[in-house]
Amino acid sequence: MVRADDERRMTVAIAEARLALATGDVPVGAVVVGPDGVVTGRGHNAREATGDPTAHAELLALRQASVTLGRWRLDDCTLVVTLEPCAMCAGAIVLARIPRLVVGAWDPKAGATGSVHDLVRDRRLNHRVEVVGGVLEQECGDLLRDFFAEQRD
User: Fold this and answer.
1) Which pTM was predicted?
2) Among the options 7, 48, 58, 84, which is catalytic?
3) DSSP 68-122
4) pLDDT, tens digit only, all 153 positions of the chain
5) Has 84 been annotated as catalytic?
């Protein structure tokens, strides 16, 4: 269920996504929000910038939140991300015990939290995630469409 602060938090993730444009990375942004409503971790795609295939926005935000909070178990946090997570990121979300995921745009090619796959709600796993999708979907999708249109030109 969409909460009152989800759109505001998504605007923070969108701002983070825009930072990826400076290095030619796909503009995806993520923020981890702690139980007190404060952002504890931020990330944007940095694969091109770092040469690291795992430098996805979600993983960077989860890592930063873990350092900030001093623990790996983020079972009282919300992850807000501009694009539906891939399988790698979905696995990390489950392993970090994130209880709630807020998604901007769905990824019909590689999404792993409800569109192509649904790893975060697989009953065989020891943890399941509430997924809230489509928050500021148009704005998140436009950012990605504009990026890829520019790449094709």
Assistant:
1) 0.97
2) 58
3) HHT-S--TT-EEEEEE---HHHHHHHHHTT--EEEEEE--TTT-TBTTS-BGGG-
4) 899 999 999 999 999 999 999 999 999 999 999 999 999 999 999 999 999 999 999 999 999 999 999 999 999 999 999 999 999 999 999 999 999 999 999 999 999 999 999 999 999 999 999 999 999 999 999 999 999 999 998
5) no
